[in-house]
Write a structure and sequence with these properties.
It is a single chain. The protein has about 210 residues and is of the alpha+beta class. The chain has one domain: Gcn5-related N-acetyltransferase (GNAT) (Aminopeptidase). The chain is about 30% helix and about 30% strand. It contains 5 helices and 8 strands. The protein has an 8-stranded mixed sheet with strand order 1-2-3-4-5-6-8-7, sandwiched between helices. The longest helix is centred in the middle third of the chain and has 18 residues.
Length: about 210
């Protein structure tokens, strides 16, 4: 049983389940200014974005991912994409007693990673990323009852690492010679995580940033 598709709505953005019809809007967002995509896979053509979306939807069908587009509410523009990936399902009998998910007759996500995130240049360094992360973490910890949410990034991507650290995620270490980077260089990946006991303080941090 896969997780249910749903739109996550905040004050500034909503996260809408990815559809093939989003390809054109995603290309428009991705081609505003590509200077910040040095370490991130962001397709810039209809053909490449179509393939990108198909792969994401295939991963969703396999219960491994849940992809979204990011829609800015003030102008209804699609301004990026993000997803849960590496979702793992544990038997319901292993759920901790205080889990918000109390369904005994099925499996459900217990860990996942937030990743494959990119934004149009016009909304970078705004409230968009903060609220996207808050909405996704609420989905993971409050709706699914996960034990851990992970993040990883190219170790050279200092802006991404700073953004993850500002969420309150804890640095776990480097996975050396992990994969080929977008630039063709073998990259080390920096891993971070937030666990269930840390979620209340992380939530407060993000809500304070949105109010600020």
């Amino acid at each position: 049983m896969s997780v249910q598709r749903s739109t996550l709505r905040g004050q500034f953005v909503e996260l809408v389940p990815l559809e093939r019809s989003h390809v054109g809007d995603l290309v428009a967002a991705a081609t505003e200014d590509r200077a910040s995509y040095q370490f991130t896979t962001v397709p810039d053509s209809i053909e490449a974005m179509t393939h990108y979306v198909e792969v994401a939807l295939t991963d969703e069908e396999a219960r491994w991912a849940q992809p979204f587009v990011v829609r800015q509410l003030n102008d209804q523009r699609i301004v990026g994409s993000t997803r849960y990936l590496d979702i793992d399902y544990w038997a319901a009998s292993l759920a901790r007693p205080h889990s918000p998910v109390q369904t005994a007759d099925r499996e459900f996500p217990r860990v996942g990673e937030i990743g494959a995130t990119w934004y149009a240049a016009s909304v970078q360094r705004t409230r968009v990323n903060t609220e996207c992360k808050l909405l996704l973490l609420e989905l993971g910890f409050d709706s699914w009852g996960v034990e851990r949410v992970s993040f990883k990034t190219d170790s050279r991507n200092t802006s991404s690492r700073t953004a993850i650290e500002r969420l309150g995620a804890q640095f776990e270490g480097l996975r050396r010679a992990h994969v080929l980077g977008v630039d063709g260089v073998i990259r080390d990946s920096a891993y971070y995580s937030i666990i269930a006991s840390e979620w209340p303080s992380v939530r407060q941090r993000l809500e304070n940033r949105l109010r600020g």
